[in-house]
Amino acid sequence: MADVPANAARQAFLRTLEKGQVRKGTVSSVSDVDAHVDLGGFDGLLRAPEVSWQRREVPLDQVLRVGQDVTVTVLDVDADRDWLTVSLKSLQDDPFREFARTHLGHVVPGKVTKVASIGVFVRVHDCVEGLLPASELPEQDGGDQSPAIGDVLVVEVADINLDRHRVELLLRDGG
Q1: 2 within a domain of the structure (yes/no)
Q2: What is the 3-state secondary structure (H, E, C) of the chain?
Q3: In this model, does residue 175 exceed pLDDT 60?
Q4: Same domain, residue pair 156 and 115
Q5: pLDDT of residue 3
Q6: First vs last Cα of the chain: how many Å apart?
Q7: Number of domains comprising the chain
Q8: If pLDDT is split at 50, 70 and 90, which confidence band does 140 have?
């Protein structure tokens, strides 16, 4: 029976929250895939992709620590299911939007981050990768001369789709 008042208090707290609300909290636990943020009555789930716009290349516990004070946005709240998700990323400027505003049509150097059958992925700016389609890569005459991870290519930012967060690239001289 002791759980009933606590559960009622949790439900009441959740009902005070709404999507889009900004709240202060404290990181209460961290794992490889998520963290929990105590908002003063309930722990909200903070999934790794909602921590930052940057692609995470280090464990989450090197980015967040238990006891750290954070400001988050409520992404989803469902008092009936006892569910709350939050985001740190939503309060940060989206580097992709800034890139789109300033780089369409520009020729830039970029570093190959992944090689796939459809082409190569090239990091052209902090937090922004684009696809250089296989059709843009030079024909191979015996011997493998395709770009490798870490190679620097000169590319043109040909197309940007904000909704899908995609960038299409074209190979330019010097690449």
Answers
A1: no
A2: CCHHHHHHHHHHHHHCCCCCCEEEEEEEEECCCEEEEECCCCEEEEEHHHCCCCCCCCCHHHCCCCCCEEEEEEEEEECCCCEEEEECHHHCCCHHHHHHHHHCCCEEEEEEEEEECCEEEEEEECCEEEEEEHHHCCCCCCCCCCCCCCCEEEEEEEEEECCCCEEEEEECCCC
A3: no
A4: yes
A5: 56
A6: 70
A7: 2
A8: low
**CA distances (Å), 88 to each of 48, 50, 65, in order?**
10, 6, 14
Per residue in 105-132, pLDDT tens?
A: 999 999 999 999 999 999 999 889 999 9
Could you tell me if 144 and 76 lie in one domain? no
